[in-house]
Amino acid sequence: MIDTHCHIDFEDFSNDRDEVIKRCKNNLTALINSGTSLEGNKNALKLSLEHKNFIYPSFGYHPITSQDKTKEDLKIAQKHMIDNLDNIVAIGEVGMDYFYTKDKFLRAKQNEIFESFAKLSNEYEIPLLIHGRDCEKKVYNIVKDYKNIPEVIFHCYSGSLKTARKLLDENYYISFSTMICYSEHHQELANEIPIENILTETDSPYLAMTREERNEPSNVINAAQKISEIQEIDFNEVDKITTNNAKKVFNL
Prior knowledge:
Blueprint: E1 2-6, H1 17-27, E2 30-34, H2 38-50, E3 55-59, H3 63-66, H4 71-83, E4 90-97, H5 104-124, E5 128-133, H6 136-143, E6 152-154, H7 161-169, E7 173-176, H8 184-190, E8 198-200, H9 220-231, H10 235-250
Parallel strand pairs: 1-2, 2-3, 3-4, 4-5, 5-6, 6-7, 7-8
Helix pairs in contact: 9-10
């Protein structure tokens, strides 16, 4: 089992990170630690070097963070990505978020920034790990024009089934988080998405089973169990297929 999207570098894990990672190693094959800022990318790289062949970093810039940065800030972050292409498995998470951002100017800025990351992914032919919320179709309409991106992953996809089918037509991957355990919408989506296009994740420390809890990567097993139940596929088969999907997508 692989958690394809978590933030083990976040401060939420500062007090017991080693214990959390130990639990992960007891339960998982690997995890992808997704950077959300320049500093986060540096921390993700550091953790991957400390836990080689288990923690793999992706370098990104969360849209809510990037919308407030200058062009120079983003240029520095992108240069850091380019300088570390041999050390990372994807660019992301990057994307657009219309749930939190309502301002038209900031939405347009998110669009422009995301396109710059898509161009980078396309130019260097490295997978793109996407955060798209309340604007999944708009994100799709941008990324579909970049044909040299080897793999496109819509992390914690929450859009419509109609848009999901467009993603499947492009052979993109849709990642289901632990949110599937309690979200009827995600359960409905999982009932329609072929297992061959599914990845599993936690988005730790977020999306735990209750608001009071902190999520952690080991809980990705809960997402796989729910997918097994929904699709009526043996859990071990879900584990095998989603793990192989992750290995292929991120070239692990």
